[in-house]
Design brief:
Blueprint (H helix, E strand, L loop, with lengths): L15 E5 L2 E4 L4 E4 L2 H4 L8 H11 L12 H13 L4 E5 L2 H18 L7 E5 L8 H7 L2 H4 L9 E4 L4 H7 L4 E6 L2 E2 L5 E2 L2 H14 L2 E5 L23 E4 L10 E5 L20 H14 L2 H24 L4 E7 L2 E6 L3 H10 L2 E2 L1 E3 L3 E4 L7 H20 L1
Parallel strand pairs: 3-15, 5-6, 5-7, 7-10, 10-11
Antiparallel strand pairs: 1-2, 2-3, 4-12, 8-9, 11-12, 13-14, 14-17, 16-17
Length: 391
């Protein structure tokens, strides 16, 4: 008999009932150090006082009115995002998947309105993950994502990750945009080198294309900059954001330049819940913390400390781990042992990591974790590795 919850997840046998900072408390009372943050969502940790207060205050006044009316909290968050990024305008969604849908529509509508309706193709890369909607799985293109869900949405050209020559060769009269994650998350914590991001920006400029960046997982302070592309000194035309921007409340956004968004006029897109007062009140509180240069400096300091300790962990367990990769507090441990065995051993030692492709485990801790949390994390990962070695 099918369960009442559709069985599309292979869930760990854990039920968490409370969170405190970087810690989760299981129903049986065990405390787990959370190095997953709900897959890079809980940027400020669990039950952060400022987020609790923002949500509570808003909930006591107004939850939902729809986008038929002006929403002050939405305007305030849009102003914060525009003020701190390349963007001129913002559309709010409930998730990264919805942000992908709009990014694709926006790019195609831009060229349609310019009288270039043939420009519909978007170049994407293997190992990418852009959500599980029809556009998202078609953009990724992998058999794992698409098998059984045809016919797929057309208009995506899939290239090898890191193949700049392939990008140039793939551009045609139909090409509208290039879409890429500055750091692939699901793909195994694979950063795009700064030089390659610069090159992609130049290719777009030289060929009149739009650059779409998917910063759903790598954005909102995760890499030590507010957004990961800032390390390369470039800006996109369109950017997808979600996960960390809501600090745990479902919230996403598409940020764009005035030019890239010029085709999106009244009636071309909409969302019932997107930009609701609750989500945007929390998003404002998140931005007040994460956009602070002192906060980002602390993320970078802690990232350096954690990475140094992880290098030591790899040296201690060369049969389990191969290398550490990533940026800021978006790190991956490439495993020699099966990554799922390491994840499961972590559960046994009450530390949470997240599996990814390329036999990697992801470390995506709250950006607020402490020095003590870092030391405890490495201790527990050491215990998990020892368990894997002795299995």
């Amino acid at each position: 008999m099918i369960p009442s919850v559709l069985p599309t997840y292979n869930r760990a046998p854990l039920s968490f009932v409370k969170g405190e900072g970087a810690w989760l408390i299981e129903a049986d009372g065990r405390r787990f150090l959370d190095l997953g943050s709900g897959i890079a969502v809980n940027a400020l940790g669990h039950a952060h006082p400022a987020l609790v207060q923002a949500l509570t205050n808003q909930a006591s006044n107004l939850w939902h009115v729809s986008n038929l009316y002006e929403i002050p909290q939405q305007q305030a968050l849009a102003d914060k995002l525009v003020g701190n990024t390349f963007a001129d305008t913002v559309f709010f969604t409930n998730s990264g998947t919805e942000a992908c849908e709009l990014a694709v529509k926006m790019a195609r509508k831009y060229f349609y309105e310019k009288g270039e309706a043939e420009k519909v193709e978007i170049i994407t890369f293997d190992g990418s993950f852009h959500g599980r909607s029809s556009a998202g799985i078609a953009a990724a293109g992998s058999e794992k994502m698409t098998k059984g869900f045809g016919p797929l949405l057309g208009g995506f050209v899939h290239l090898t990750f890191g193949d700049l020559d392939g990008v140039t060769n793939a551009i045609s009269d139909k090409t509208a945009a290039i879409m890429i994650e500055p750091v692939q998350g699901e793909g195994g914590i694979r950063p795009v080198p700064d030089a390659e991001l610069k090159a992609l920006r130049q290719i777009c400029d030289d060929n009149g294309l739009l650059l779409i960046l998917d910063e759903v997982q790598c954005g909102v302070g995760r890499t030590g900059k507010l957004f990961a592309h800032e390390w390369a000194g470039i800006t996109p035309d369109i950017m997808m954001v979600a996960k960390g921007i809501g600090g745990g409340f479902p919230l996403g956004a598409v940020l764009a330049t005035e030019e890239a968004a010029s085709g999106m006029t009244a009636g071309t897109h909409g969302s019932t819940y997107g930009g609701n007062p609750l989500g945007c009140a929390v998003g404002c509180a998140v931005m007040d913390h994460v956009a602070d240069p002192d906060f980002l400096a602390e993320v970078n300091r802690k990232a350096g400390l954690l990475r140094q300790k992880l290098e030591g962990l790899i040296a201690e367990h060369p049969e389990v781990f191969e290398e550490v990769r990533g940026s800021g507090l978006m790190l991956g441990l490439k495993c020699k042992a099966a990554n799922i065995d390491v994840v499961n051993a972590g559960y046994d030692n009450q530390v949470i990591t997240v599996p990814a492709a390329d036999n990697v485990i992801r470390l995506l801790p709250p950006l607020t974790l402490t020095n003590e949390d870092i030391a405890e994390a490495v201790t527990r990962l050491d215990q998990a590795a020892t368990q894997v070695e002795s299995a």
